[in-house]
Description:
- The protein is built from 17 helices and 35 strands.
- The strands form nine sheets. Strands 13, 14, 15, 20, 23, 24, 31, 34 and 35 form a nine-stranded mixed beta sheet that branches. It has a six-stranded mixed beta sheet with strand order 3-2-1-4-11-12.
- The two termini are 50 Å apart.
- The protein has six domains: 2-77 and 221-262, ATPase, nucleotide binding domain (Nucleotidyltransferase, domain 5), CATH 3.30.420.40; 80-215, Dna Topoisomerase Vi A Subunit, Chain: A, domain 2, CATH 3.40.1360; 266-338 and 431-494, ATPase, nucleotide binding domain (Nucleotidyltransferase, domain 5, 2-Layer Sandwich); 344-430, no CATH class; 501-609, Dna Ligase, domain 1; 630-692, no CATH class.
- A hairpin with a 5-residue loop joins strand 11 and strand 12.
Amino acid sequence: MPNDSTGARLAVDIGGTFTDVVLESANNRTTLKVLTTPSAPEEGVVVGVTDVLARSEVAAETVELLIHGTTLVTNAVIERKGAVTALVTTDGFRDVLEIGYESRYDQYDVMLQKAVPLVPRMRRFTVAERVDRKGNVVRELDEDAVRRLIPRLRDCGAESIVIGFLHAYANPTHEQRTGEILAEAFPEVSITLSSDVCPEVREYERLTTATANAYVRPLMASYLSRLAHRLAELELSCPVLLMTSGGGLTTLDTAKRHPIRLAESGPAGGAILAREIAMELGLDKVISFDMGGTTAKICLIEDFEPGKAREFEVDRQARFLKGSGLTLRIPVIEMVEIGAGGGSIARVDSMKRITVGPDSAGADPGPAAYDRGGVHPTITDADIVLGKIDPDRFAGGNLTLQTDLARRALETDIGEPLGLTAEMAAFGITEIVDETMSNAARVHAVEQGEDAAEHTLIAFGGAAPLHVGHLAEKLGVSRIVIPTNAGVGSAIGFLRAPVSYEVVRSMHMSLAAFHPEPINRVMSEMSQEALGIVEAGAPGADLVEQRQAYMRYRGQGHEIVVTLPNRPLDATDEATLRTAFDEEYVALYMRVLPNAEVEVLTWALTISTVPRPAEKPSDAGTSAIGDPASARNVYDAETDRTLSVPLYWRPDLVPGVKLSGPALIVEDETTSFVPAGFDARVSGSGHIVMQRIPENDA
């Protein structure tokens, strides 16, 4: 089982700017950041893995497991770099992708832009067939009509075909037969069935999820095959597991078939790391803050569990506005993601305001300071000019930064248009992005009925430790935790994740007409499907099963999640489900509707390996005051001058060491900034814990 293995294990996280590699063996950990290679992502992986194996002196053939997460799926959707995709659907439903919810996410914006469907109308085709919501065939599939589509599909250059018929979740036979016919005609073309990817009610969500899966499937299947080949060349013959958006691990074959489940795989690893640290330190209210090179991710973790959701949106046209993006219905850890990473580009808009992102310089050409052709200022360039980044130690010294190029970009694009010095322009950029991120955290907490100020911030990723102090000040947060090896935090989270798989089926049933037999039959089928995938990824492991029902009062638009017993149901369980629903409904809405009919729309089952037990906090060791290794000049906007700030080398800070802000703590993958008004202490397991100094003690 991956979580209990004592051999060497690798984790690889491909981001938009950097590829992070972590190798753990026995009690040793070796980490590395290398630039992502966008045109061939596997090349960056090979470079990083080769270097890490050499540094750790671990032989490739002794590695027992490689866990991989990537943003390639999301990036392909946002950048529209997927396959030429065609849709075959039921007569009369050609425009479901366009119609959506028949609503506007901003009622009064006359220039409103909606997310463009991944399949344009000219590549959407229909055939005669109809199944009702109970799975009864109303009109048989016209197989001749399907065959007549073959020349049209060939003429439109389809590289991937998605088949999505009305109510196919209740009876997939028409989709399956259409798939067989088209597979005979197009043996080299990827074919996706909506009933396979998302067998749930609600046509729009099912079709957007299935089309997104079809859109990225050839790209990801090709990439994962190339990656497996390159890893074999390195003599890495170990199993390869992929991180999913829901926080579990799945097999390579499943990832090739359902790549859309990888959409948020990198951020999910970060949330798992934050959960582990929260359990270790006994923190029941946590906000994880993951800021890398391209985006920033914020996740609320209550009572040691990150929030979960059944759907999320990509490619939002309006920041924070639900309905402005493409809806994907997959298991996902709930978080807010914004275009604010170290590579996010800053500019002055037509109203003479500094704006940052969402576009990023990425790895190629990268920020101006990378000296790889980038000419526009980024957040990283701003942090360099402010003095918060050591140009010679950036990314462990693998990339030397050019401060003069960062300064020139800031002066040209921000300073000259606004009449600011390079330092003040840099401060303006960081102030804007910090305010944007703090507002996102504040709104996300409020939407969950929480106060952000009552939480501890756990910051990781290459840029988060630099910015988290300012976020804490804006949010009124009193405690910050910077994990060990924070710069590669998501990759470390991969190594803590269970192997798991969730299966969902829509089958409507009113509690007034409760019949356990069809439920048990569907649950048994779901259990076998999930079990086959989990056992392939973790043979012989101890497994746990969780069953859930998505329930509502009849007439309501959305459901709430209710936990079911992990056993076959019987006739007496009608009362069990009703009681469980009432308890969940009261917890959410403070009341029940006594005479309203309750119904179940969807059933879910998850099988996973047994979660790791929480580690016990170790002895904090010494309580000495840390000695700085040197000092750096950091720009202070309040006084408009530079201040000499002590600089500490993190490997020199043993458990129990204390220091006071302002201070910089430098390590290979990132730099942490301790703001004035905070003390920092190294915990027993090496985490940096910053605590706000009470005003009467300051």
